[in-house]
Amino acid sequence: MLGATIEPALSEPQFAALVDALAADPERRGDLISFLREDHPHYGERGAAAIVRMRGWVLLAIARGEVPDDALIFILEELDTGVDPYLVAAAARALRSYPRPTAALAPFVMRALGNIRYRDEPVSFADYGEYAISPTDASAVSEVLATLRWLGPRARDILPQLEPLRAPHGGLPRKLRLDVDRALQAIRSPAPEDEPGTHSCCGTAPNGVRSMSSLPSNSRRGTKQIESIALQDQKGELITFKEYFHGQPSIVVFFYTRCDNPMKCSLTVAKLARVQKLLEVQGLVDRIHTAAITYDPAFDLPERLRVYGQDRGVRMDAGHRMLRVIADNDNDVLRRHFELGVNFIESLVNRHRIEAYILDAQGRIAVSFERLHWDEEQVVIRTVEMLKEKECGSGSQA
Amino acid sequence: MATKRKIGKRASTRKQKAATAAPVQSPENINDVRSLLKVLRDGSKPIDVRMAALQSLGAAAFSVADFDSVHADYIAALREVSTDSHEQLRRRALGILMRNKDGYAQKKLLDGLKNSAKALVPPEKALQLLSYDVHAGAYSAARSILKKPPNDEAKREALRLLAADTKSTPLFEKVLRDKKELRVNRQIAASALHSLDPAKLQARARKILLDKSDYSDIKATSLTALEQFGDDGSLAKDKTLLQSVNRFKNSKISAKYKQTARRFLSKYGP
Amino acid sequence: MDVELHINNSTAPEVRFLTWSPSPCRIRVTNPSGANTPTVSVKIAGVSAASGGSVVFRSGTTGAFSSTVTLTVPVDGTSVSFFAAGKFGQASVNDGDIKIEARVGTTLVGSVPVMVRIRKDANDLTTGERDRFVAAFAKLNNQGLGRFADFRNMHVSVSLPQAHRAPGFLPWHRAYLLDLERELQAIDPSVALPYWRFDKPAPNIFTRDFLGESDAIGTVQFSNSNPLQFWKTDNTPGINRTPDFPTSQAPPGLSNEAQTLALGTQFRAFRGMEGDPHGLAHTSFGGSIQDPATAPKDPLFFLLHCNVDRLWAKWQRKNDRFDAAVAESFDERPTSRSGHRLNDTMWPWNGITSATDPTRPPTAPGGGMAASPAVGAPGPQPRVRDCLDYHGVTDAASDMGFDYDDVRF
Which of A17, A149, A371, B209 is surrounded by the most beta carbons within 10 Å? Predict the structure, then answer.
């Protein structure tokens, strides 16, 4: 019998039982989507490996029935940037329960193959938290290949990337080459006549999956609380949120120096450096601020911020800074304001999503990019729109 | 076995270990690797043969083209032998798994710290291996060990693991201040403090050098920390500190420590 | 009368470092007082401190070297070129332990201190050499905040295919070591990367004053005056290393130097040394150095690889394999992998990431190859072929500015 509230600090077996119960209840299955948010209380105070087990189980549970549209972005996120084989395998398997596959899914699956093929692991989905310890038929790579096979002709655009894996030195074992063959056969088969669009466009997310959202000016929020928080930059200088972000549009990314997923923070900050170069080329670097704010302010002290940014080619000056909050509860203010997709074990991040924001000239969130890799040029284009908004005076306070 | 031909070809060019130890070979292809995986998992084989197979597999990870194609099998084999009856095999397998940030190994090690009946390796080794992954969630286990350390090594490894824990700054200040603490623990505390609060380390290192009753080894650590990572400008102006270092140099200490002091003075002295 | 001596075509102190390869030098008269002819005869010689290095000279790009060279130098300031090199087998121990002196008759008219800076056997370093190396390395690490983090991040699981299990293994690691060495030299120019000769006992390396002594569980201990006690990687202090052999002896089971050099005269055969002895040297330990993705967390990694590179250099010398145009010098088969073909640039120095090439890692840490003040090669984005002729045998412009104590020019 399900209770009305979900108890925090469940043991992992209790969490798994809860997930199973929700998955079995048609009325409550949709609640599982909320379990995919990183900041869900269930994930607080857990190590990263526990998060992997828990999230994997949620994805598998959702996939016992038809995967709803609003779960798709979480699956694609894992395929796009996940580096944990178990979770990538669970996402690949879950995708096969999505009822409306399109060609746009194929690049994500192919990226997942690229991310984990050099660190394949055996996986077992029979019981919660089970780790495979014998060579079984299932590995993360085999799950991903099964999903390519499921996509069939919709995956035609990724054939040039898949075909080389068939070669003797393609890097896949013999038993998986059979899986590659099956996938290739399925992809090369004729496309169903009633299914248009077997070609993906540019690796963009499928329709309905929103990784970018923008708020019209009259919907944007600014609070006194966020405006007054004190930030410290990589030189140790203090500045308030309002002082730094008011007066011009800003591009803000979140990261932390202890992130060990090369597809996330390190790449995010390196991309911020590329954004800055685009701004320089367009003569906008003095009219738009950029900021990389750490999720881990207690550890990411100024010198650490400076070195991290420098190592990734980040420009650092009065309008472009690496930042941390300095008061303990200001981190909560920041989290609430941006609705950050992050959770912690004590003060250490245990899981986070990719997130980047464009603030308008009043420091309000105008555009957000979440979960999937954002495009540097797109970010600049959107920010220039904020600049025009400011210059036209159309971005007034709500 | 296909590998026998290859071994025969190169046997004359290889050094052999002592008669009691198994020969180690560098696998040349994936078939060799698969054979070695079988040997590793085979509990009926002598332990030195299985350890040699594990060493050879490690070498294959560096050099065999397509090694990634058997990576899943390698991980599976390591997980299997991480609970083997031979502790040396468990240690080595768990080490490789932890360097791969394997969730299975992490869970086993953490469970072992919570319940010694489940421990696969001694607590100090478990803590050392858990420190490979800062996200392992081992801080609370380390703090429990510190409350009641089963031995000196476990305490030391718990301190090392906590070196990136922002909540442990007061702990490290205390350890560095405590003259009754083991030298190695005070050394770890100095290193940890530099990460967590560099200004505190600089201040504490200075106090240690000014304290006539503190030990020469921790003074040497403090001097090394200041010389390598201290603020050059303020150190050069600190006459009191320089006088203390001079006294340290002239006291009854080892030649090595005298040299450290001399180097410091030649860098910052007048 | 005064003369100005240019070493490596410069008067800057930071370029006064020689190897066994001939370095281009120049001399010119800056103060002709006392001269009553249009030219003067100047004798150039090296004067070595006790236990210091030794220098030899020649006037042109060919011919034998000798301990002195006599040049006819115009007094109008026109420079005259000559070449200087370290005398093989007599490397410096300290910076400036050789003076290159110019005399007119018995009168000293100019001198510069130089160093014959050579990669040496780590087991045989003097205390001073060892301590300078360790101090520079610890500074580069800077408790995890230094540039060493880039070197660590160049050798992680996602980047392993750029440098391993394929023909580019040796050139990539040669570039990697050189990049690191140049960063060390930016901290202390007297430092050269030493090598761990893993087929011989090296007890002096595994001490608390050098690369540390492992305890029973493999935690490495350092003396209180060793700056490596502050070593940090991946935000964790310390080094895990469990030798599977007594460190007073060599690790067993590895091919020795003679066996390695006898692997074959073709590159394709020789590069099998990636497995034995290279891979087996790594796996003679438990701990970070045992795994490809964590190996550079242990500073011993760089000494291990310095020996791997020395073995390649020795094989090249033995078989005259410096010319990239000769197939036996480098064979890129069987691979189509980017970064392993002769004319490929190499990640991370080429800055190519998965944004433009899905076979590359997501980021390229460290930027371009560190420059040397003394030599121009291999440039900021070295190609595989640029890493073959490391001391300028076929083309003097290829000289990368390093040499090994037991590998001749």
Answer: B209
